[in-house]
């Protein structure tokens, strides 16, 4: 029986034809942060000839999509996916497209149609699936090497209008979700690599972080292998998708948060909100790169801020006028700096056991704001998500920066390092400079 992966076995052959090599050890790509939207993008190579491309990094999406309109789409190797083919079925296609314009990446008959979505604007369109070349740098964990090619990477087309709300330089979205068609899944399947990927988001808009695909480690930043310091918690399945078209479980990564502590004291909260309602998919704690800051359901947010403020007053910190979207800000001059940011009460995210804790220090809990006149503030980097958000806690980008996050899709578990700043390194320390990498 033909399987969807038949398409993906081709790169294997490609590697066999090169004389000196076996399979690549792992792949790596730079992640940059946009200073205006505060969203992240992954840099990779697409099409033939290969073109450096930036795509919005989305941890919860099922499939990648990119603008296929002229003149952006220029490639000699794209292929359409026929309706009813195993690949089309496995992509959960609900429509078959026909087109009466000149044939091109965007226009074919009997072509598999998908609903690419923009998670920031909430907009979706109907467009066709496509296969084309994708390449990423190989790595031994410490530096980028030559490119590895997937000749037939599957994704969806979109139009330029779907890009609204994303960072200016991106040309689409790269999906890192749980699905069989996310970038990590296609890379691992095509190149027979472990079904693992890892992210290290940089805390600076001026320096790139790194994503590793098909690798359990090492992940080396400034000579330090941060894969050595991971703590694991099971990934939790949300049975209901967040997407417009409902077809099964969510492609987002949820974790089993059971409590939040501030300086070791438990935030009083309604535990029902921490579990996922199996009919609606509401509740629970997810990880998102679509929001710059962690978003909490109103009652959780209020209880958390109240305890944080109480614990901070014990440190004699002066609350000052807040800066949107934050609820609490302090004068930076009142706060001592440490290796891992301002010295503020520690926030612990407690998972399935009391000793499985994701510790959040000042560099991840607080955001530095420079006001006119040279006044500097540290604001608590959490925002109120309203009374009925889909997920009760959405751990956002700032919170994950300078932490190594590993997604082990074989054992369905999530590994986190807490701040690597404590180890004397940072996510911007991956040695991209040693090779010609388009950042
Ligand atoms: C598309 O590619 C062709 C052949 O490589 C080239 O001649 C043409 O200028 C390209 N067009 C754009 C818009 O990049
Ligand atoms: C699709 O089929 C119709 C009807 O046969 C034809 O007019 C049209 O040109 C075809 N479109 C493409 C892109 O081949
Ligand atoms: C993903 O692939 C696996 C193995 O081929 C298969 O068992 C599973 O049903 C697929 N999942 C989806 C959502 O298609
Ligand atoms: C980034 O670079 C710009 C210009 O080079 C500089 O003004 C800014 O302070 C830098 N930001 C950070 C966070 O380093
Ligand atoms: C806890 O949250 C659930 C889900 O929103 C709600 O139905 C319930 O009434 C809440 N319980 C309390 C005591 O507020
Ligand atoms: C806070 O201020 C009070 C009164 O000035 C002082 O006694 C206390 O030591 C201060 N605490 C800290 C942590 O600085």
Low-confidence stretches: 1-21
- Relative strand content: 25-35%
Helix percent reads: 10-25%
Number of domains: 2
CATH topology annotation of the largest domain: Cathepsin D, subunit A, domain 1
- Rg over alpha carbons: 22 Å
| Quaternary form | single chain
Tell how many strands the DSSP assignment holds: 32
Structural class: mainly beta
Described by the principal axes of the CA atoms, the overall outline is globular
CATH superfamily of the largest domain: Acid Proteases
Q: What is the name of the CATH architecture of the largest domain? A: Beta Barrel
How would you explain this protein's 3D organization?
The chain is mostly beta strands and 439 residues long. It folds into two domains: 4-222, Cathepsin D, subunit A, domain 1; 225-423, Acid Proteases (Cathepsin D, subunit A, domain 1, Beta Barrel), CATH 2.40.70.10. It is built from six helices and 32 strands. It has helices at residues 10-17, 86-90, 183-190, 298-313, 362-365, 397-400; strands at residues 27-33, 40-46, 51-58, 65-67, 79-80, 95-97, 111-114, 127-139, 144-158, 172-175, 196-200, 209-213, 220-221, 224-225, 231-236, 254-255, 259-262, 265-266, 285-287, 294-296, 319-320, 329-331, 337-338, 341-342, 347-350, 357-360, 366-370, 376-380, 382-384, 393-395, 403-408, 413-419. The longest helix has 16 residues, at 298-313. The structure holds 2-acetamido-2-deoxy-beta-D-glucopyranose (NAG) (6 copies). One 2-acetamido-2-deoxy-beta-D-glucopyranose binds next to loops.
């Amino acid at each position: 029986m033909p399987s969807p992966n038949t398409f993906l076995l081709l790169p294997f052959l490609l590697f066999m034809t090169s004389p000196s090599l076996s399979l690549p050890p792992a792949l790596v790509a730079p992640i940059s942060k946009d200073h205006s939207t505060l969203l992240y993008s992954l840099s990779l190579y697409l099409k033939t000839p290969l073109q450096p491309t930036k795509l919005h990094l989305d941890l919860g999406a099922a499939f990648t999509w990119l603008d296929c309109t002229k003149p952006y789409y220029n490639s000699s190797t794209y292929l359409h996916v026929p309706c009813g083919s195993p690949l089309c079925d496995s992509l959960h296609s609900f429509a078959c497209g026909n087109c009466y314009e000149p044939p091109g990446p965007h226009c074919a008959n009997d072509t598999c149609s998908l609903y690419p979505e923009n998670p920031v604007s909430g907009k979706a369109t109907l467009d066709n699936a496509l296969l084309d070349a994708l390449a990423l740098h190989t790595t031994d964990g410490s530096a980028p090497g030559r490119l590895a090619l997937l000749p037939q990477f599957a994704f969806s087309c979109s139009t330029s209008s779907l890009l609204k709300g994303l960072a200016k330089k991106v040309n689409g979205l790269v999906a890192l979700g749980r699905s069989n068609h996310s970038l990590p899944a296609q890379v691992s399947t095509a190149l027979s690599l472990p079904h693992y990927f890892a992210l290290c988001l940089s805390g600076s808009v001026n320096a790139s972080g790194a994503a590793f695909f098909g690798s359990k480690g090492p992940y080396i930043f400034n000579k330090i292998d941060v894969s050595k310091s991971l703590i694991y918690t099971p990934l939790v399945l949300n049975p209901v998708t967040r997407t417009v078209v409902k077809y099964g479980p969510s492609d987002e990564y949820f974790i089993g948060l059971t409590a939040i502590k501030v300086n070791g004291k438990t935030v009083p909260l309604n535990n029902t909100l921490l579990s996922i309602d199996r009919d609606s998919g509401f509740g629970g704690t997810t990880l998102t790169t679509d929001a710059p800051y962690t978003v909490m359901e109103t009652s959780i947010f209020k209880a958390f801020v109240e305890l944080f403020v109480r614990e901070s007053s014990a440190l004699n910190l002066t609350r000052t006028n807040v800066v949107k979207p934050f609820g609490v800000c302090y004068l930076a001059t009142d706060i001592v700096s440490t290796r891992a940011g301002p010295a503020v009460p520690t926030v612990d995210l407690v998972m399935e056991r009391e000793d499985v804790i994701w510790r959040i220090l000042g560099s991840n809990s607080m955001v530095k704001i420079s006001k006119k006149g040279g006044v500097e503030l540290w604001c608590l980097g959490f925002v109120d998500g309203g009374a009925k958000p889909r997920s009760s806690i959405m751990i956002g980008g700032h919170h994950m920066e300078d932490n190594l996050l590993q997604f082990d899709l074989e054992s369905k578990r999530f590994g986190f390092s807490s701040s690597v700043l404590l180890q004397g390194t940072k996510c911007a320390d991956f040695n991209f400079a040693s090779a010609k990498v388009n950042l």
